[in-house]
Write a structure and sequence with these properties.
The structure is a homotetramer of 285-residue chains. By secondary structure, chain A is α/β, with parallel strands linked by helices. Chain A has eight helices and 13 strands. The two termini of chain A are 23 Å apart. The mean pLDDT of chain A is 96.
Chain lengths: 285, 285, 285, 285
């Protein structure tokens, strides 16, 4: 019904005329902008923009847009990417044994809320194989230990490439990724950490939070970088707790946070609304 | 330190080339955009934008901008307004007897958070005269009853005009404004209602909420229109309550909501971030 | 590992000595209280309490507790119920075509978070039959129209009784229940309404909320009574929206609310933490 | 109108019969319980309770209650304290130069929401002397540097004792207290820290939070102990931020959090609802 759109995410040094130039480029070629949001970081002297326009009726063929846009991008020194709303990202889910994020993502996928393809599910255990099968998604088991980690990850990367996967969602995947995996999908691996980062990084954050006597617990979704729990934050949320809540209650309440926060991050990623920038993210509304 | 800015708020029928035209106009005259946010309402086929640019170095004198912009506005059929960041709105506070919103707004005004002038405070009672005096702001007492309402409001309007007031904040003012006052300040009177509208309009909303057994209470800030509690909503927030909370507790917790929500609405108004549109508002981030 | 517990929910006219009498009864019989929470409503002159104690080592057999407690209950004029933590409620899920609450509840059930049995799923359509089957839960289709409503509901009630169901969860069930069904399960049917009641009762609340231009949307879980959307509220939650959110976005964001709020209500019910009282609920922490 | 109440806060090793014994003691002496809340920490094998009963009609004189309760307390090994609702805590406010928490607390004090006396305000600067004077509260200036800190604090302690102060609220007081001050008011000094502890302890938390790119900021109120920012947490709250928020916006939004969270903690303290326990707090609803 609605026309598919082209989505441009870009950043460059802040300077006059960027909006005029890009909106002029789109208008001159008969494009209709449906969303444009810019952001200026005065401290970093940096400019960021997401612009989305209908490609039905656009005078440049979709395959030729990048080339046509090149000179403008060069003039302003842009870093940029171009995507199309009707090209669905191919996302692999990595899981271990907790089912809440997995069910939630598959349910949203099935209902059409998450416009992505899920060609495969990867796990270091077999606990959730049945869930994958219920949804008819191929399940791949890669048991991992210290000795075989490099080798197994290399096999995973090969498999992901074979399936033309362009993003990974760690849906409570309880294995630390090695550098090769992070390098293979830079700013394309989304993790959910079960605390309000930077509070309580590492293992057993609910136990630490309970021990500290906090009155609010949180969850954080972020892109995975080489430093564990230090990557660019995409989304965070919190919920109240009290002295009446045991660690077990923290875990139970936290699961809802993890589920919601991870789903929000995946939705933003799939809709090309995230622009990672140094160790932060610009999240376009 | 930072340059003052010009702030354009506009709406028009959605059509191609609006962003290109406006950003082109600014760029051609050497203006540097510091904020631009647009919004398209596809159902209403309407386009909205807020754009803010530095006027130091802008080639058009500030007094001549409106005239220079006129042809462009006409071409696209725009409804628009232009303001300058260094021209502070002149805001009158209307109060009755509750002090929380008053103290809060005066405290924010004093600390510089609210970039507005407060030339006078108006009240239908004298309970809070001392607070006005502590802050050195002229206090005007207009006792109002059924018989004198029209006359007293007419006197208030005259006084407000004399002080070149361009907005009114009803900081828990417990009198319904008549049509003449609403007409004198269209979309320029901000009210705080102590419920999550449209739930519990009218008087004693906390009592009604308690009676209904809700688990969350709210507050709503809105522009005043002829229909009580029906004007465009600017900001809303909520807080949890439980069976342990009496009506008295609802009132106590609600005061914090009222304070925060009203302050947020005033801040948005003072910073020209609100575009009322039919019975809703576009609130630019 | 932990001992099973007896759970007493009671209310009576407020008077001296209730806590002393009940805690004395438990202590004299060697019971160890693990949770006790009371509430006094001074306006209604009413007293409410939930008390939970370990039954391992309790001197009265579990089947004899009710009888032994009878005289005390009589003395204070109590309305009361007794349950045991190791007797799982038998809950039927009623659904129509939206899958988010269903997946969520089944996932929580499967992971053990919801300590209930789900002997059957009832639907007026067949859209979600596959989901029920994936989880191995018998699915019963009762197509309902004006003509057959009474008859079909009577058949449902018979089926529910046959399965010894003691509570019903309407997990986005899009049919209004008739009086016979409500009477068959008083304060035992939990519904999720997709608005912040009492705002936007009835059909299409997200559309109404969008039209009104609210800045926050909500969801409400409540027991079903004869008056639609008027039953005792169990849980409510909200999330922010803005002018950028279309009705479609309201629906998408609202689904998360519905899921969380319904799951919370079911958890509270299953754990015997809700005491309905007139048209409100006491929810014990 | 309502009777004044006695408020007992107690903890002891968990064991059978505590509730029965205490509620029996009150009932036998004709006391009417208006609030009773208990909490069991199974890991620590500890029992906690707050119980509040009317003293009009209680058979033991208020001055004799402690002695009469002594044997019971001894039997169960209780740590306990007794207070009366009509004996207002005497609270000193410590401030530096930011006015938001000060105005807020004085406004709540003036309106009667905070049932405490404020005999004096202490500051290491004179910026806010005028605010104290507006409210008619004696202002004491104690300039502090490395050399005179011990001496000045000793003078402060003497002054506080002279005014029979029993609690201190650090309303954005920008000086670290030395051990002698902490020791003089154990679990009676309430601080507001402008972050979601344990994230971002120390100075300039908003800058650190902005640098890290968080999507939520918080504030934490806690009792002051010898370890800075490590004391028992009383209350926490958070608000959303985005890439559009500068450090300046973090500070602005954070002020609202600080104000609300500190006021909540003071209210809880004044109403004897906090039971510090190791490095945590039990906060009775």
């Amino acid at each position: 019904m609605a026309s598919p759109t082209a989505i441009l995410l870009m950043s460059c040094p802040d300077q006059g005329g960027i909006v005029a130039a890009i909106s002029g480029f789109i208008h001159e070629n008969a494009g209709n902008i449906v969303h444009l949001e810019q952001h200026v970081d005065p401290e970093a002297n940096a400019f960021f923009m997401r612009v989305e326009w209908e490609i039905d009726g656009f005078r440049i063929e979709r395959n030729a847009i990048a080339e046509a846009f090149g000179p403008l991008a060069g003039k302003f020194g842009m870093t940029w990417s171009l995507a199309f709303s009707d090209v669905r990202p191919r996302v692999a889910l990595f899981i271990t044994k907790e089912n809440h994020c997995l069910y939630d993502l598959l349910s949203r996928h099935e209902s059409g809320e998450l416009a992505m393809d899920v060609p495969l599910i990867v796990s270091n255990r077999t606990d959730l194989q049945g869930v994958a099968e219920r949804f008819g998604i191929p399940f791949h088991h890669f048991p991992i230990n210290k000795e075989n980690k490099q080798e197994q990850e290399a096999a995973e990367i090969a498999l992901l490439r074979e399936h033309r996967v362009n993003a990974i969602v760690l849906a409570r995947y309880m294995q630390i990724l090695s550098q090769q995996m992070v390098d293979a999908f830079p700013n394309r691996i989304i993790n959910i950490h079960h605390s309000f980062l930077p509070a309580f990084p590492g293992a057993r954050p609910y136990h630490s939070a309970h021990q500290r006597g906090v009155k609010v617990i949180g969850a954080t979704s972020h892109y995975v970088t080489e430093d564990l729990d230090e990557g660019p934050i995409i989304a965070q949320d919190v919920t109240r707790v009290s002295h009446r809540d045991s660690v077990h209650d923290f875990v139970r309440k936290g699961k809802d946070l993890e589920t919601i926060v991870l789903a929000r991050a995946v939705w933003l990623h799939v809709n090309r609304r995230i622009l990672p920038y140094e160790n932060r993210t610009i999240v376009f509304g």
